[in-house]
Amino acid sequence: MYEICPETAADEPEVEALYDLCFAPGRTALSSYRLRDGVPKVADLCLVLRTDGILLAAIRFWPVRVAQKPVLLLGPVAVHPTAQGEGLGGLLMRNSLARARKLGWARVLLVGDAPYYNRFGFARLDDVVMPPPTNPDRVLGLELSRGAWVGVTGQVTRETSPQVVEALAHRVRGLDAASACVTVEPPDLAVSQEDDNGDQSAAGASADQ
Description:
- Residues 187-209 are annotated as: Disordered.
- With 209 residues, this protein is of the alpha+beta class.
- The chain has one domain: Aminopeptidase (3-Layer(aba) Sandwich).
- Helix content is 27%, strand content 27%.
- It contains six helices and ten strands; from the N terminus they run βαβββαβαββββαβαα.
- Strand 3 (54-66) and strand 4 form a beta hairpin.
- The chain is globular and about 45 Å long.
- 41% of the residues are buried.
């Protein structure tokens, strides 16, 4: 059995160590981190996956803007090398996106490998531009409500609304993680095989390269 919980301040050192393990040195110099600097994470959607207390996977989200519309920036998502190929990246993706939909978010953006993220409904966004030197083929989007990406084009920018930033910061400080934890069964064999290469991609494909 696995437990999925919102990330807390106590989890942060382990999550950062997992990202350091899974991604190349200098990951924080990648273009997407310019959109995150000084902006609180979307705490309800930043999740950790553990079994017997051992951290196996993590996913984070940040708020950004495109054409002044609120957008979720997904990533990084990482699976510990010893657990890759077990479908854990897919578990976190599906769980976090379901939570995002329930919370009323309309659209999600990531930078990653389309062959992996297509299975979750992501498709290339031809007219959405991440900070350089991002490869346009890796800029992908998902609609959590029908038509949410229609007409939403242009540069991806930082979330600078004081009200939004303050609300997110408050939520980070006041998060009651225990009330939002769920216990899930391991993925079935078919799903695990489908995500087999995906966990490898999940450890790097949404690393905002």
